[in-house]
Each structure stands twice: as structure tokens, then as C-alpha cells.
């Protein structure tokens, strides 16, 4: 092994595991080592290829078209449907919003109607593209309120959004009613199925109840679905599908306004590595339709088992029954959710804490994949032990003086020195004796402090945190 690869192995040893089914956020594990082998070899074979020009690398064009074709069949798309391979769900969402905006040049101040549970990528798109996000509160079941969304559509609305499912709660919005309301006003309707797009169709085939959400629903004009999630493909691919080519056309960018080659892009990227495309194509070819049905069955069986684990713990409750592979749980007053998260992490199970939002308290998010299924008994044991440990530790208390201090701050008026002080006080960052950045090993106190902060202050603190993390390492050999 070369020095570089030895060092790489050491660095990777500090990361969360991507296999073994115990990382219940960020990664999606099929549980099949052969899938990983196929993906690695395909990515390596195409790592130097460039999808910028489809005439230069026609094999990548062929693979992209075949991936779109597979997805069209999965999502009940009409024969007129087209699609694009993107770098991930956020880029698919960005392009859906940008295309909707540019399809309506007559609208000076474009707006899009979102349920309050829509993914934050839509807010990113609003920020980038100058499209106002009109947020509509959801119902008690955390699903979009179709009537309220219909009432929010006006002459400046260029896009209406639904989720299948929403990330934070794992439930499918009433797409049929939302899409009908959008169609009645001549507005595009995008379904964000980045999480559910590759598993919900199989859930339906397995006899599980799934609300309608695909292109079979009249009025749905585009759908985003991530292949690097439940298609179990390598990181870096998603699909954006449109009902017909005319809907996709505003997404394209071309420029001959310079002396070089005429730039022509279907995505926000120009140069695109062929590695993720080839890796995704190879994985989809390898697993196939029957294979995905079996993987969906295992993932959903794991969800059922985890739901039973939660039901067996009096201190825990489901926030809402899941429609897919996302599980959200909450705790009672005897069990601090942030301490529970730390205790699960300490036992080798990475789960994702979600902070309070509006009238809803903090919760814990789990993205369950097929690779988790063989380990659900271990999870049940870890969950029971973690609940007991969290109850014994008691609630995490944030000093009232710190709360008052945070509430009095204006995040827009703080300077770098103020943020450095806040980061140190919050425990988000510290320095070791040799001056190296140190991250906290347990996050309960940090999350409790963030939970009492306003959303604007959370954003400001975490932006400062990211800025502090991303600093050059002087003298690096890289």
C-alpha cells in the first residue's frame, strides 16, 4: 500500500461507517458487498471521463438515457417523458425551480408554493434564483394541506411542490389534490421523491398502502428521485424527470457569447465526472427490477421492526406512522432526545437529531435501508439500553443566562469575533493543546443550546461553524 493510500485509510477510519446498516442518515446500504464491488469498479473505470459533451463520450449518454428509461417505467411516466441525470437531490430540485421560473418570463416576481415540510433545498433554490417561497402550514398529520396550498396559488406562482415522502417525517403529501389545484391554475407541480422515488413503487407492489404520487397523477409535471439513495448507487447521482420535453427545455443553458466552444449544459454543472453515472448504471443493471423489489421488502421489514421497538419503549413514540423508509420518533419528559441520540451513537448507531420547529418539539430521524434488516435485534437492544442511560442522565439543561444572551443577540449584526466566542461557548468547536481543531464527542448540550436559539441564530452559528471547519491545513502534502 502506498503512503497516500495508507494515510487515506487512517483518515477514513475517523468517518461514520457506510456499510453495516448502522448509519441511519447520509448513507444507504444495500447490505450486499457485490453491489459495492460493481459500483467501485464502474466508478474507477469512468473516473476520468467527462459527461460535458455527450458526443465525446457517447457511452455516458447511453447510460444516462437507460437510467432515465428505467425511472420512467418505475414512475409511470408517459411516452413523452424525458429526464436528466444530476449530481444529487438538491441539484434536481434547483433545476426544477430554475426551469419553472424561466418558463414564465412574463412573471416579474415569481413565487412557489411549498408545504412547510418541503426540503430545505427549495429554500436554497429560492435564494439562488429569486423565487419567493410561500410556505403553507401542514396538518396535524404532517402532510401538506391541499386546500390551503390551492388558496396560496396566485398569478405569480410558477411552481407548486409536494413531497413523496417528506424528509423530516416520512409521509407522502396528498399529491392528487395538490397537482389538480396547480393544473387548474396552469402552474407546474413538482413532486420531490428524492427519498421515496426508488422505493415507494416497490412498496406498492408489495401490497403496502401508498398514496398516489407518480406521473399517473394528472397535473404532476416533474419528479426528482435520487439514485444514490434507495437505488443504492454511488454518491453523486439523482434524476429529474419531466412529463414532456417542452417542460424540460427552460432547464438547458447555452452560451456562444465568448470566443471558446459554445457552452451547452443540461445541468448546473459543466464538467461532470463519468464515474458516478457509470457506477449508478452498473448498480441498476446489476440489481435489476426483481432485486430492487427484494431490497425494498427488506428495508420495509426493517422499518416495521424498528417501529415495534419504539412502540415497546414507554418513553418513546412515533411522531407519525411512516409511509416509506423514514422513521421519526420523539421522547417523553423522562428521556432527553439529544442525550438519547448520543447514547445510540456511543453504541454504534448513528441517528440524526432534529431541532424544534414551530410548535413541534425536537425529534430523532432514521433513514432505514435494506442493510439494516439483519441488525434490527441489535438495534432493539441498543435502543433499550440508550433509553435507560438517557433517563438516568436526566435532561440537558441550558443555563438560563445563556438562553437570555442568545435571545438578545441579532445574528445579522454579529462580527467574526462574536461568532468565535459563541462557538467556543456553545461547545461546537475547541482547540487541543497543540492548536488542532477539536469537535465535541457528545452533542447533547450543543443541540440543546441550538434548540433554544431562533432559526436565524441557528443558521448563523452553523455557518460560522462550517467556516471555522473549512480552513487550509498549512504544510499539507495533498
Automatic annotation (TrEMBL):
Is Transcription among this UniProt entry's keywords?
Answer: no
> Gene3D superfamilies under this entry?
Aspartate Aminotransferase, domain 1, Type I PLP-dependent aspartate aminotransferase-like (Major domain)
Q: Which keywords does this chain's UniProt record carry?
A: Aminotransferase, Lyase, Pyridoxal phosphate, Transferase
Q: Which cofactor does it need?
A: pyridoxal 5'-phosphate
Q: Please name the Pfam families in this protein's record.
A: Pyridoxal_deC (PF00282)
An example molecular function term from Gene Ontology annotations: transaminase activity
What's the superkingdom here? Answer: Bacteria
InterPro entries (UniProt xref)? GrpII_AminoAcid_Decarb, PyrdxlP-dep_de-COase, PyrdxlP-dep_Trfase, PyrdxlP-dep_Trfase_major, PyrdxlP-dep_Trfase_small
Q: Which family does the similarity line name?
A: Belongs to the group II decarboxylase family. Sphingosine-1-phosphate lyase subfamily.
Q: Which protein is depicted?
A: Aminotransferase class V-fold PLP-dependent enzyme
Amino acid at each position: 500500500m502506498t503512503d497516500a493510500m495508507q494515510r487515506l485509510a487512517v483518515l477514513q477510519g475517523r468517518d461514520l461507517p457506510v456499510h453495516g446498516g448502522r448509519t441511519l442518515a447520509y448513507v444507504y446500504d444495500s447490505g450486499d458487498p457485490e453491489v459495492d464491488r460493481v459500483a467501485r469498479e464502474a466508478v474507477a473505470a469512468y473516473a476520468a471521463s467527462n459527461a460535458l459533451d455527450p458526443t465525446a463520450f457517447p457511452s455516458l449518454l447511453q447510460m444516462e438515457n437507460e437510467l432515465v428509461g428505467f425511472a420512467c417505467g418505475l414512475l409511470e411516466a408517459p411516452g413523452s417523458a424525458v429526464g436528466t441525470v444530476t449530481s444529487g437531490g438538491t441539484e434536481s430540485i434547483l433545476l426544477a425551480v430554475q426551469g419553472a421560473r424561466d418558463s414564465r418570463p412574463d412573471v416579474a416576481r415569481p413565487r412557489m408554493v411549498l408545504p412547510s415540510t418541503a426540503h430545505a433545498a427549495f429554500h436554497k433554490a429560492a435564494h439562488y434564483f429569486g423565487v419567493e417561497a410561500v410556505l403553507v402550514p401542514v396538518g396535524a398529520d404532517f402532510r401538506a394541506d391541499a386546500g390551503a396550498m390551492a388558496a396560496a396559488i396566485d398569478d405569480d406562482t410558477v411552481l407548486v411542490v409536494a413531497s413523496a415522502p417528506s424528509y423530516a417525517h416520512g409521509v407522502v403529501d396528498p399529491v392528487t389534490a395538490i397537482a389538480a389545484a396547480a393544473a387548474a391554475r396552469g402552474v407546474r407541480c413538482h413532486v420531490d421523491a428524492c427519498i421515496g422515488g426508488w422505493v415507494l413503487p416497490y412498496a406498492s407492489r408489495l401490497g403496502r398502502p401508498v398514496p398516489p404520487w407518480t406521473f399517473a397523477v394528472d397535473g404532476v409535471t416533474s419528479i426528482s428521485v435520487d439514485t444514490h439513495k434507495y437505488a443504492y448507487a454511488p454518491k453523486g447521482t439523482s434524476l429529474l424527470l419531466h412529463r414532456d420535453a417542452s417542460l424540460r427545455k427552460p432547464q438547458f443553458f447555452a452560451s456562444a457569447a465568448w470566443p471558446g466552444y459554445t457552452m451547452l449544459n443540461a445541468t448546473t454543472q459543466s464538467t461532470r465526472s463519468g464515474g458516478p453515472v457509470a457506477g449508478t448504471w452498473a448498480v441498476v443493471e446489476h440489481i435489476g427490477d426483481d432485486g430492487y423489489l427484494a431490497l425494498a421488502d427488506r428495508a420495509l421489514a426493517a422499518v416495521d421492526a424498528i417501529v415495534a421497538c419504539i412502540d415497546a419503549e414507554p418513553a418513546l413514540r412515533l411522531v407519525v406512522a411512516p409511509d416509506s423508509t423514514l422513521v421519526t420518533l420523539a421522547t417523553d419528559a423522562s428521556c432527553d432526545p439529544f442525550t438519547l441520540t448520543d447514547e445510540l451513537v456511543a453504541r454504534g448507531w448513528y441517528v440524526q437529531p432534529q431541532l424544534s420547529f414551530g410548535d413541534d418539539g425536537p425529534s430523532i430521524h432514521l433513514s432505514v435501508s435494506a442493510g439494516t434488516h439483519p441488525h434490527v435485534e441489535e438495534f432493539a437492544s441498543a435502543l433499550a439500553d440508550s433509553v435507560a442511560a438517557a433517563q438516568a442522565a436526566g435532561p440537558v439543561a441550558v443555563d438560563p443566562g445563556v438562553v437570555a444572551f442568545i435571545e438578545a443577540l441579532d445574528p445579522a449584526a454579529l462580527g467574526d469575533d462574536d461568532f468565535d466566542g459563541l462557538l467556543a461557548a456553545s461547545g461546537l468547536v475547541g482547540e487541543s493543546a497543540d492548536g488542532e481543531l477539536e469537535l465535541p464527542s457528545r452533542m447533547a448540550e450543543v443541540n440543546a443550546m441550538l434548540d433554544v436559539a431562533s432559526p436565524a441564530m441557528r443558521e448563523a452559528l452553523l455557518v460560522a461553524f462550517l467556516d471555522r471547519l473549512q480552513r487550509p491545513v498549512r504544510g499539507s502534502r495533498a
